[in-house]
Amino acid sequence: MKRQADRCFEFLPVNEREAKPRKHGITEMRGPYYTPVGPRYLTDVLDTMGAYVDIFKFAGGSFSLMPGKVVRELIDICHEHDVLVSTGGFIERVITHGPEMVERYLSECRDMGFDVVEVSSGFITIPPDDLLSLVERVRELGMKPKPEVGIQFGAGGGTAAGELEAEGTIDPARAIRMAKRYLEAGAHLIMIESEGITESVNHWRTDVAAKIANEVGIENVMFEAADPEVFSWYIKNFGPEVNLFVDHSQVVQLEALRSGIWGTKSTWGRVATFKHPEVRAAGRKGKTPELVIDAGERKRGAL
């Protein structure tokens, strides 16, 4: 599926984007958690914005409360729109029930049609080698492992900033080392937990985000950014092809910013890409473009 397909007012220019399956500018959309997301609503979202959505995520184990028939229908709707489906980080809850339950869970995920299994440990303490074993097992079952790393203890549940501050944070270097080990084990992408960086903090740790991007590789990570102010910051600083996770209610706003058609005072008219003709043609064939320039950065003298 090409990004430009069936776009209304197609004569109006927008930023060039890769065709699916994309390697840059991946958008993961949160599904049911804060609000229900059923087949009719999901169909509406993907019929209108499916060209810009790459992954659909069930957050907080929400699928375990829903009828199996409906979960399968949601998964099928995603696949019809070339959208991968993620389990979200529920596996850390399953881990507390023991290895046999984990194996049953992963097998059921495969049989249900899930494509991506998020491997997280925000609430539990578990040896790194055990998490790496989970990544390898997910791959063995034919799914894409997507481990999560972060710097905040107790992350992942919308806990208040004061409570998280009492829990403390870890050295970012440790999270970076773990991310690199995950990639060596065959991880699909690394999810960067927002809590401790841009969520539930008194001051944003943008230095941590920059260090992760520089040392792990911007193309290898996806930043949690389910807040317009946060995803605007990531696009301003890393360009429109940064990989981001947002809520289903924010997909249109995010793509308007990526495409350069709209924004806020600090982003309006400043987000752009520049592709040489050869690169533009490659992008339309689904290959990875090689050149990106952020017009905003150019105005600030970075180029």
Structure description:
The protein has 303 residues and is α/β, with parallel strands linked by helices. It has one domain (27-262): Aldolase class I (TIM Barrel). 40% of the residues lie in helices and 10% in strands. It has twelve helices and eight strands. The chain has an eight-stranded parallel beta sheet. Helix 7 runs parallel beside helix 8 (206-216) and helix 9 runs parallel beside helix 10. The longest helix has 14 residues, at 99-112.
Short description:
The chain is of the alpha/beta class. Helices cover 40% and strands 10% of the residues.
Please write out the topology.
Elements: E1 27-30, H1 39-49, E2 55-57, H2 68-80, E3 84-86, H3 91-95, H4 99-112, E4 116-119, H5 128-140, E5 144-149, H6 161-167, H7 172-184, E6 190-192, H8 206-216, E7 221-224, H9 228-238, E8 244-247, H10 251-259, H11 277-284, H12 295-299
Parallel strand pairs: 1-2, 1-8, 2-3, 4-5, 5-6, 6-7, 7-8
Helix pairs in contact: 1-2, 7-8, 9-10
Number of helices: 12
Number of strands: 8
Fraction of residues in H or I helices: 25-40%
* Shape assignment: globular
The total domain count is 1
Q: What portion of residues belong to β-strands?
A: 5-15%
Rg measurement, Å: 19 Å
Question: What's the mean pLDDT score?
Answer: 88
Our measurement of the CA-to-CA distance between the termini, rounded to an integer number of angstroms, reads 33 Å
- Please give the CATH class: Alpha Beta
Query: Could you give the order of the helices and strands?
Result: EHEHEHHEHEHHEHEHEHHH
In the predicted model, the low-confidence regions spanning at least 5 consecutive residues are: 283-303
Largest sheet: 8 strands, parallel
CATH architecture: Alpha-Beta Barrel
For the largest sheet, list the strands in their spatial order: 3-2-1-8-7-6-5-4
Structural class: alpha/beta
